[in-house]
Amino acid sequence: MTEGRAFFGGVPTAPDIIALRERWPDSSLTPGDLIRYSDVAAVLRIDPNSRRFWSVTRRWRMLVEQETGRVVLGCRHGVGFEVLDNTGKLDLSHAKLATAARAARRAAKVSATVDMATLSSEEKHRLLILQRRSAAIICANQIKGDGNLPSLGETK
Question: How many C-beta atoms surround the C-beta of residue 89 within 10 A?
């Protein structure tokens, strides 16, 4: 007997992802390529404004990035998916860190309202870990480079 998976009534995304990967093979994606939402919607035969479109494309992008380890598909608002070059990846990383920092600030504010006297020792430990991690993310986001890097040795 084979082991089954829980099915919660959704439509599987695998057939749509296979269709997208056949149309745009991972090996053919190069930095600067733009895959228009309308072209993706035509392959999937669904409305690009639907939840299904975003469910399938989110999973597709995740799989491409995980399996290639080099291709990152960003979104160009209102246009399509873009294979990012190194500058685009840097910009995306910066935006993700800013989002993480906002979430970390919110987590720190919420955790500051916890009354430690009512917590068990395990919960106190979890709270302290949460506060340390939040602080580390917030601090990392506040570091600004001034361009004055230390010398790493003489260069001639």
Answer: 14
What are the residue ranges of helices labelled H in 72-143? 86-111, 121-142
Contact 43, 19 (CB under 8 A): yes
Could you give the percent of the chain with pLDDT greater than 70? 86
Residue 45's pLDDT band, with cuts at 50, 70 and 90, is very high
| Helix, strand, coil in percent for the chain, rounding step 5 | 60, 5, 35
pTM: 0.67
Pull the structure tokens for residue 30.
Answer: 């190069």
State the number of CA atoms in the 13 A half-sphere of 12 facing the CB.
7
Two structure tokens written together for 33: 């390529």
Residue for token pair 């639907």: 50
Quote the pLDDT of residue 4. Answer: 63
Q: What is the chain's alpha carbon radius of gyration, rounded to the nearest angstrom?
A: 22
